[in-house]
Amino acid sequence: MVATGLLIAEVNVNTMCELGSGGVSLVSMARRTLGPVGVQIACWSYIFIHYALLVAYLARSSDILTNYLGLPLWESATLFSLVFGGICYFGSQRFIGAVNGVLVFGIIASFIALLAVASGGLEWDALLKANFEAVPMSIPIIALSFVYQNVVPVLCTNLEGNMSKVRTAIVVGTAIPLGLFLVWDAVILGSISSLGMGSDQMVDPLQQLRASNSGVVGPIIEVFSLLAIATSYIGFVLGLSDFLADLLKLPAGENRPQPYLLTLIPPLGLALLDPEIFFKALDFAGTYGVLVLFGILPAAMSWSDRYSTPSTSVKLPELVPGGRLTLTLVMLCSGGVIVTEILESLGHP
Predict the structure, then answer these.
(1) Phi and psi (nearest 5°) for 215?
(2) Less Cβ around it within 10 Å: N or C end of the chain?
(3) Distance CA 10, CA 312 (A)
(4) What percent of the chain has pLDDT over 70?
(5) pLDDT of 240 over the 60 cut
(6) CA 10, 13, 19, 24: dihedral to nearest 10 degrees?
(7) Superfamily of 2-347 according to CATH
């Protein structure tokens, strides 16, 4: 996921240099490197993944707000959309960055509190057990959990195409959630036996944690979830609105309402209509959409950019070393997971 994010950044900066403007989205990148077919793949995959995830974020956040504020579901979803959608539309880059910084600080604080409470019964011996047969099934979820490539074009624009700063932001920014995931997984896997769950039981460990800590863990989990959803929601709104602005051929640098309305209203309506419709679509998006859009496509665009399309007047450094071998491995790994999932689904109807 780090490699594909760097590949997108590399192609994005090259495209900005060639077009002489910022705010370049995946559409322009795919059009320049892969032609009409690449544009169609990028457009439909990007739109589907973003809308599906925004629906899921709204469904979960409105559920949390409804439980704690006592508001009707539609009011909670609308309130969440207005607050964070308004921040994205009216806020400056500095203000959005400050809000995101506060949210991230809250995530870290609640995460530390959650670990302190939940790790009381940690059994280290449980972490020595492994089930490698479960690895293939976990890859799509891991890929979906580490989706950030949608904001890479915005990142490149904000950092003015500085390749060194872009590389640092992607690597460090991905390492932080990786560390959080590893620590949280260790707490969950090390607490399974102490929570009374056998290795052959299919039980939600979060529900067990809530029940085993006298109601202390539940509120912390909800705060952590809401803050994490808010940061993800802001990133996906910015990414999709920028994508739609480029798709609609709107002037660069102007904050028009159309892309934000198209970004905010459809997920809100679908979340209120029936959010569970999209839960299976999310699994599909993680398996196919994410690994196509943020797995195969970045490597294919970079291949075309490096070896097929004429080079720009300024030769920019490659953010991902290894040449054709690395690009081939990225495409093969992503494609291998997709084929494995297809075969698995065919074998288990």
Answers:
(1) 80, 10
(2) C
(3) 13
(4) 85
(5) yes
(6) 100
(7) Amino acid/polyamine transporter I (1.20.1740.10)
pLDDT at 19: 79
**83-115 residue pLDDT tens:** 999 999 898 888 998 999 999 999 989 989 888
Between CA 121 and CA 207 the distance in angstroms is 16
Of residues 253, 246, 115, the one with CA closest to residue 186: 115
Are 127 and 190 in contact, with CB atoms under 8 Å apart? yes
Averaged pLDDT, 297-321: 80
Torsion of CA 302, 306, 309, 315, to 10 degrees: 120
pLDDT digits (tens, 9 = 90+) for 50-90: 888 888 888 888 888 988 888 888 899 899 999 999 999 89
Q: State the helix-helix crossing angle for 2-19 and 163-191, rounded to 10 degrees.
A: 160
* Average pLDDT score over residue span 292-303: 92
In the chain, domain spans: 2-347
Q: Mind spelling out the 3-state secondary structure of the chain?
A: CHHHHHHHHHHHHHHHHHHCCCCCCHHHHHHHHHHHHHHHHHHHHHHHHHHHHHHHHHHHHHHHHHHHHCCCHHHHHHHHHHHHHHHHHHCCHHHHHHHHHHHHHHHHHHHHHHHHHHHHHCCHHHHHCCCHHHHHHHHHHHHHHCCCHHHHHHHHHHCCCCHHHHHHHHHHHHHHHHHHHHHHHHHHHHHCCCCCCCCCCCCCHHHHHHHHCCCCHHHHHHHHHHHHHHHHHHHHHHHHHHHHHHHCCCCCCCCCHHHHHHHHHHHHHHHHHCHHHHHHHHHHHHHHHHHHHHHHHHHHHHHHHHHCCCCCCCCCCCCCCCHHHHHHHHHHHHHHHHHHHHHHHHHCC
